[in-house]
Amino acid sequence: MDPRYDILFTPMKIGPVTTKNRFYQVPHCNGMGHRWPQAMAEMRAMKAEGGWGVICTEECEIHPTSDLSGLALMRIWDDSDLPTHELMVRKVKEHGALAGIQLNHNGSSVANYMSRMPPIAPSSIPTESQRSVQARELTKNEIKTVRGWYRDAAIRAKRAGYDIIYVYAAHGEMTLPMQFMSPRFNHRNDEYGGSLENRVRFTRELLEDIKDAVGDTCAVVIRFNVDENLGAEGMRADGEAREIVKLLADLPDLWDVNIADWSNDSMPSRFGSEGGQEDYIKFVKQVTDKPVVGVGRFTSPDTMVSQIRRGVLDLIGAARPSIADPFLPRKIQEGREDDIRECIGCNMCTTSDTLAYPMRCTQNPTMGEEWRKGWHPEIIPAAASQDKVLVVGAGPAGLECALALSNRKYDVVLSDANDTLGGRVLQETRLPALSEWKRVIDYRTHQLISRANVETFVSSSLSAEDILSFEIPRIVIATGAKWRLDGVGRENRSPVSISGDASIVSPEEILNGRKLSGRVLVYDDDQYYLASAMAQKLCEDGCDVTFVTPATNVSQWSENTLEQFKIQQALMAGGANVMCNKVLTSIDAAKVALECAYLGTETITEADFVIPVTSRTPNDALYFDLLKSEEQFGDLGIKSVEKIGDCNAPGTIALAVYAGHQYARQLDAPSDQLHGFKRENYFGREQESS
Ligand code: ADP
Ligand code: SF4
Predict the structure, then answer these.
(1) Do residues 586 and 626 share a domain?
(2) pTM for this predicted structure
(3) Which of 381, 571, 600, 645 is deepest in the core (most CB within 10 A)?
(4) Do residue 139 and residue 273 come from a single domain?
């Protein structure tokens, strides 16, 4: 290990417990939680194996009045929830990590869909989860009862074996303690409302109660958002937050500090870079003598060391970097920092929370598959044959496929028609908004460069004839997809009317550097990131941009990646004319006809160029050309021809990477394991799915 990084591996006392190093996996959701407990526990254990000193749960509901049903988080309502916790704690501790639990009552932010209990809050205010539903105001006696719930949950958590117990008072409206502290939610005029000291009372009592109950053996931690990015309306690092840290200074054993809301905390790389919270959180260590942990999508050990040396943080907190690379600490410790699979800040991982499915990660295809498929991020079974593999296309699918096959010790030939590896990622990351996503290529090409068992050819466009002549037994076609120009997408299921003199520009032309000027209409029926990132760039280039979508807002699906609001804000601030709920119907020379998605009424708008971002056609001609010679495969020694990634089914970059990895894992696998994954049903029995 580089001695400069020694400090990252020095132990630190947190109240009555000691972490072996400074790598601290802060609480983060994962879409598995109590719903898929074995998958969740194995995922956490993998990070402990990878060297993280502290591993925390996601938020954990303490009572049925804090019922996040519909989502899959943790739960500690009563003793029947303990087996899930005991499993996770045991697995994490097997690797020498401390286990932390983030206790929470969500107060007014939940609608209690399953328990059907009225939500509770400091005051009678609307809930965040369900429209037309309000939380009821807690009486003083009831506040005592809620304190008891926290205390009981903490005692249970101690019994489950946790070392670190959180009072979660962050992410703005998501937590009851924050609702008490914030005048936006707390309109009380008793000793729990009004003055700052009164508003902090509930949080102070929780910390005191829990310390009293379990503080002899467990560290008691507060997670606190020092700024809500709401200006004068919200908590501010240069306002009340500083006073709150002063008021509670040495009461908790550790301060875990961040900013709110969640979209600011898990800042997408499109809007913020590594260490972006420093200016907000740096005051905390000046106010408390207790250790401080914070996040900032840290992947560079130099930045981590600098945070500690400059007195910003004591412990390096991470959610996303630990998802993209569960073995990040071990790689630094072994002097292999160049092998770190750096998070790209795309927030595909956060979709697991909003859509309640097991977590996935663009960079780490094994994420969420540790238990279900038995995938380890650093270990892959050795090759089961001597077969050579030809991978055609070096986009995310082909690159990951080649890398994982190489890790299995297969001999691989990787070939791409372009003069540079990377496929669509190379193109898309030319957009300034997406530049950090290039790490998908950088990580893989860096790994591949040193591989003796991988031959790479660029500027090599292969035909079926070429491929058949190679007589390589395994053929993988990963030739991607191209954007359609005829308007077919989610809304228009058949081509729109386009006159011969219309100026249609493909997304690829823009991504490959074509410059436009004048009036440009971007039609987005893809509804994720690309159209808006392109429109943002065109605005910056000085074009007069109209952004049209049939959806109710810009880049609608990016609500799940916490980007939607920021994307629409940036586009509007950049001068784009945003038109939602409009379906493209025809394009003439300079006129574009749009139809209201609700009423069908027509609007005509003018544009010199139209860029349709609607859907893609797989580049599968090569695959089908090969199949024409299927009968000769045996004679040519060809055992299989498969298509993967966008060439098979156009999708996200995450899906392409996953497809590449999946191919490599299943090559020569026994047929009963193909595509198989274990399931957890309600009675905890495992089933094989086919
Ligand atoms: P995916 O997302 O599935 O990985 P991409 O579109 O990113 O797909 O990448 C596909 C890659 O395949 C591109 O880099 C393209 O240059 C390459 N490609 C397409 N057709 C051929 C071919 N016939 N021979 C070699 N490379 C090809
Ligand atoms: Fe990072 Fe994207 Fe992976 Fe999340 S999904 S950990 S943001 S690379």
Answers:
(1) no
(2) 0.97
(3) 645
(4) yes
Question: CB under 8 Å to 72, separation ≥6 — which residues?
Answer: 31, 32, 33, 34, 35, 36, 356
Q: Do residue 204 and residue 299 come from a single domain?
A: yes
Amino acid of residue 306: S
pLDDT tens across 85-111, in order?
Answer: 999 999 999 999 999 999 999 999 999
Q: Residue 82: phi, psi to the nearest 5?
A: -65, -35
Rounded to the nearest angstrom, the distance between the alpha carbon of 613 and the centre of ligand 1 is 19
Q: What's 476's domain CATH number?
A: 3.40.50.720
- With a CB cutoff of 8 Å and minimum separation 6, the contacts of 32 are 39, 40, 43, 72, 352, 358, 359, 368
Question: Which one is catalytic: 171, 261, 526, 539?
Answer: 171
Q: Report the chain's C-alpha Rg in angstroms.
A: 27
Cβ atoms within 10 Å, residue 657: 29
Pick from 616, 636, 654: which residue ends a domain? Answer: 616
**In the 3-class helix/strand/coil scheme, how is 95-157 assigned residue by residue?**
CCCEEEEEEECCHHHCCCCCCCCCCEECCCCECCCCCCCECEECCHHHHHHHHHHHHHHHHHH
Pair 643, 586 in one domain: no
Domain count, the chain: 3
Q: Which atom of ligand 1 is nearest to the CA of 460?
A: 25
Question: Exposed, middle or buried: residue 480 (CB in 10 Å: 0-12, 13-18, 19+)?
Answer: buried
Check whether residue 447 and residue 310 sit in a common domain: no
Residues 235-245 have pLDDT tens digits of 999 999 999 99
| Residues of the domain holding 408 | 389-480+619-672
Burial group, residue 3, by CB count within 10 angstroms (0-12, 13-18, 19+) = exposed
Is residue 546 situated within a structural domain?
A: yes
Q: Whose CA is nearest to atom 5 of ligand 2?
A: 361
Could you identify the residue written with the tokens 């990895």?
A: 661
Euclidean distance between CA atoms 351 and 654, whole angstroms: 12
Indicate which ligand has the atom closest to the C-alpha of 362.
2
Q: Convert the pLDDT of each residue in 535-544 to its tens digit.
A: 999 999 999 9
Q: Is 466 a residue of the active site?
A: no
In a domain, 682, yes or no: no
Check whether 577 has a pLDDT greater than 60. yes
Query: How many Å apart are CA 548 and CA 579, to the nearest integer?
Result: 5
Last residue of a domain, one of 572, 591, 616: 616
CATH number at residue 556: 3.50.50.60
pLDDT digits (tens, 9 = 90+) for 182-218: 999 999 999 999 999 999 999 999 999 999 999 999 9
Q: Determine, yes or no, domain membership for 686.
A: no
Percent of the chain with pLDDT over 70: 98
* Centroid of ligand 1 to alpha carbon of 479 (angstroms): 3
* 650 and 569 housed in the same domain: no
532 with 427, same domain: the answer is no
Q: Indicate if ligand 1 lies below 6 Å from the C-beta of 394.
A: yes
Same domain assignment for residues 122 and 63: yes
Q: Which of 265, 325, 411, 646 is catalytic?
A: 265
